[in-house]
Amino acid sequence: MAKLAAFDMDGTLLMPDHRLGEKTLSALKRLRERDITLTFATGRHVLEMHHVIGEFSLDAFLITGNGTRIHSLEGEELYRQDLAPEAAEAVLHGKWDTQASMHVFNDGGWFTGQARPELLQAHVFSGFHYQLCDLKRMSAQHVTKICFCGDHDDLRRLRIQLNETLGDRAFLCFSAMDCLEVLPVGCNKGAALAVLSQHLGFTLQECMAFGDAMNDREMLGSVGRGFIMGNAMPQLKAELPHLPVIGDWASCNTPHILVPVEAPTLRPSCVSSHRAVATLAASGTRSISSTTSGINDGSTRGRPMPSILLPTGLRRLASRVCQ
């Protein structure tokens, strides 16, 4: 059984309307009751995440800013890393051939030079809001990260420009199809999870993680059990083809939460999947083996596999596929 579960937020744990569903909250609390340490690993700002976990009384560690900050259950800062000032300066004052909007983050919040009200929809629950300012006048000191939001193809071209300018002074990644992030060198969710797990006395093999975007790649690839959402970026699925894909968050009423109940040793067949469902249902958990998801199971054949909590509609669909 895993000792720590790390969850990405957007596209993974949050509903399509960017809220936490009641079934999700219930599942998270059941994990805590089983002494599973919870960690939310997100690109969101720690100011916003403190509000989220406070609102729902969730007992969780926070990895925020895509690995630039780690906070304890009590809100104590355990780790921080900022962009090198010269890298931040280059981005803030560069002349970029792009239509994307620039967004700067530091401990004071989220700053941008132009109003983008459509971006606030993702923060509807918390009320987290950007602050308008002249980005050219911002200090390059203590910048956590810089994001560009816009069309994906435009961002791909921008990434080439940024790479040519920054070289090895920053780490670039897509946190969503429409969001390109400039992060400190060595900063990602996987590196932050390694720091946190060591702090807690766990190994990464004792951790499990869930995600959907390229900013989840290092985290998913480093833990004992990584799970990719069905709605994940194609690039993520291509880079981690050995990991199970557990369902589309947009087609279901609640994200898929791993329940820490070990199924019997499974064969990659529908028959064994039905047996796993029956076994876990007897324990009060309605679930289905990840072998019914049509995944590459080469790395899990013959070993105990975790169960995936699925909404009723998806369970019925899996049942029909296996008939």
Characterization of the model:
It is a single chain. With 323 residues, the chain is of the alpha/beta class. 43% of the residues are buried. 31% of the residues lie in helices and 24% in strands. Strand 4 (69-71) and strand 5 (77-80) form a beta hairpin. The protein has a 7-stranded mixed beta sheet, sandwiched between helices. Strands 8-7-6-9-11-10 form a 6-stranded mixed beta sheet, covered by helices on one side.
The side-by-side strand order for the widest beta sheet comes to: 5-4-3-2-1-12-13
Helix content: 25-40%
**Record field, number of beta strands:** 16
If you average the pLDDT, what whole number results?
80
Give the count of helical stretches.
10
Biggest sheet architecture:
7 strands, mixed
Relative strand content: 15-25%
Radius of gyration equals 20 Å
Which outline best applies?
globular
- The sequence of SSEs as H and E is EHHEHEEEHEEEEHEEHEHEHEHEEH
Low-confidence spans: pLDDT under 50, at least 5 residues? 258-323
Distance between the termini: 30 Å
What would the keywords be for this entry?
323 residues; alpha/beta; 16 strands; globular
